Amino acid sequence: MSVPAQLPHWKALILIGLAVLVLFSFYGTFQNNFIHYDDHVYVTDNPHVRGGLSGEGIRWAFTATDAGFWHPLTWLSLMADAQLFRLNPAGYHGTNLLLHLLTTTLLFLVLSGMSGQVWPSAFAAALFGVHPLQVEPVAWVAARKDVLCAFFWVTSMWLYGWYALRPGFLRYGALAVVFSMGLMAKPMVVTLPFILLLLDVWPLNRLSFGGGSEIFLQGGRRHFRSVTWKSAILEKVPLLVMAAGVISVTFFAEAKAGALKALDSFPLSERVGNALVSYVRYLGKTLWPTDLSIHYAHPGGWPLWIIVGSAVLLTVITLAVLKAFRKRPYLVTGWFWFLFTLLPVIGIVQIGSHAMADRYAYLPSIGLFLMVAWGGAGCVKNRLPSRARFLPVAAVLSLLAAFAVASRNQVAYWQDAVSVFRHAAQVEPNNALVQNNLGAALTRAGKSADAVGPLREALRIRPDYAEAAFNLGSAQAEKGNREEALFWYDRALELHPGFAEAYNNKGILAAQSGHFSEAAELFRQALEIRPDYREARSNWERVMAEHRR
Description:
This protein is mainly α. The chain folds into 3 domains: 9-413, no CATH class; 429-497, Tetratricopeptide repeat domain (Serine Threonine Protein Phosphatase 5, Tetratricopeptide repeat, Alpha Horseshoe); 500-549, Serine Threonine Protein Phosphatase 5, Tetratricopeptide repeat, CATH 1.25.40.10. The protein contains 25 helices and 4 strands.
């Protein structure tokens, strides 16, 4: 499925319109800073990334499992930004925005090329481009992997359509290469082979039980080479093998980073319950995107009535979609796109402490947008008289304008770590991680007096929270309360004996008081736990030099 060399004027106008919508919604990201919540892991405190593109850096990118992922192309894209922009956050945000803009416009071209329907394709792409749920992956530098893998995802769809027109080794090879690039951006691309099978059902209409090999025209629209179910499945096997390899590496990386939760932390019953509820929550936030947050705390076990209600709702929608298959096949593709694409991050394999995340909906939401766009077009065509068809156009434009304004406002919350976690604390006041990170952000911003409240709140919600105790110690140290700081550092070590940062900070307080022998021992303990702890090593070398005088 090739894109014509010269687009018709109306397609060019749609592309311009999509670009304007996206830029209006997300231009504010250029004014935002780095967020000390994974941005320091991916950029600001990462010497490999900050060093820019180099032979050593490229080798590291292809072997590293830092941050719990093997995603060398994500590392390389950030290194390229560091090469160009150093530590100017506007450049990194600009790259995220550019990738989102390219994916939005390419999505329109792919959908219109596959379906032959321009206006539903434009509506679905516009919803993807401006929806407030997309703010997190676009406005967060650490979410580079999400926008990068989405670009390769949609590019793979385009290449698959090109292959489906005239299957051949070279065309399939191009698809496999781009699919592998998506896997090297983020493992979430592993579900793409299943989505390609859905595309075979609609809009490509490739699948038939009797088989066939012709390319034919019907109603003036190009159809794609039809295949049997067996052939369609076998086509995806090489891609599935590639995906299985990346899944294995990802499990290893997440376990190494300590992000993979054991069953004793989150029993299987709680995982399944949260997965069912999260599906409904994602659906709700797509339809009504309010109270968006950088972190949604995992509740443990949801009340049984909520789990059962979620299961019933999902079952009813699934049965309704299947029943409408013959007349509205786009509903099947859209709904199962949503379900399948979320599956790796829905929480059956629990990673981290969150119940769900806005960025996880970035690709799955496309399925829902397909349902809305084509369902809306069908209603207009079949049920409205021609003289009243301006009303849906007005409704669509109003909806897109409302989403664009909401996204623009949501982007402002991502100005810095204080603003993003302050907003998150308003959304979920009883979220210990959010309160802890708000307190830590306030301390880094020189507002240690304001930080004490959120950090005490984090410890009230979760008394065994070692990081909150450590951050409260840091806030007290910034305020000059040495004894109070030592108390909370000791409390952090009591909760987590391997807390190297607590030993380091205690060493700093000891050195400030002139107790260099004690400080040296504390720095040594920090280095025993983390031999690569550069700050502790530098502190140890300084106090040893001071002690020798």
